[in-house]
């Protein structure tokens, strides 16, 4: 019997072939020695004759393992588990590398933003000082601050609104 498993490492590329019985590989598969065997590559799932004819795709059935001995079944299960575990480790390693790079990028961006923030604070502080100096030059009495102007405009709006309401009441009587 011949068992074909995925490559142990993605770099090797070639699948491993494991001969479990003492029979030659060609006779174990039912083909004559030296004859060609069909090979199903995992990437060619849609390459079945039914799919080429436009027929409905058939659900792929699992291979029956009734002809295998318990030792062969256990060995097959161990091999599949080993491949799956390696794939999971590779995915985890790739994800960790991706996250580590993201941490480096975010720390770099954080440093840039902290520097920009510090520069803007210094600029704001300088402008506040310049504003105070200009106010002193002009004299505090001659300059109305923004808060005072805002409070004054609110008071005028309230008075004009009160006058409108009062005139409406008087006019309606």
TrEMBL record:
Keyword Phosphoprotein found? yes
Renumbered to this chain, the signal peptide range is: none
Provide the alphabetized UniProt keywords: Acetylation, Activator, Angiogenesis, Apoptosis, Cleavage on pair of basic residues, Cytoplasm, Developmental protein, Differentiation, DNA-binding, Endoplasmic reticulum, Membrane, Myogenesis, Nucleus, Phosphoprotein, Signal-anchor, Stress response, Transcription, Transcription regulation, Transmembrane, Transmembrane helix, Ubl conjugation, Unfolded protein response
SMART domains (alphabetical): BRLZ
The record's section on CDD domains has: bZIP_XBP1 (cd14691)
Where found in the cell?
Cytoplasm; Endoplasmic reticulum membrane; Nucleus
Write one Gene Ontology MF term.
RNA polymerase II transcription regulatory region sequence-specific DNA binding
Transmembrane helix in keyword set = yes
Short name of one Pfam family: bZIP_1
GO terms of biological process kind: angiogenesis; apoptotic process; cell differentiation; endoplasmic reticulum unfolded protein response; muscle organ development; negative regulation of apoptotic process; response to nutrient
Region named Disordered: 40-94
Family recorded in the similarity comment: Belongs to the bZIP family.
> PANTHER family in the record, alphabetically?
X-BOX BINDING PROTEIN 1, X-BOX-BINDING PROTEIN 1
Q: What is this protein called?
A: X-box-binding protein 1
Species classification = Eukaryota, Metazoa, Chordata, Craniata, Vertebrata
Query: Which gene is annotated as encoding this protein in its UniProt record?
Result: Xbp1
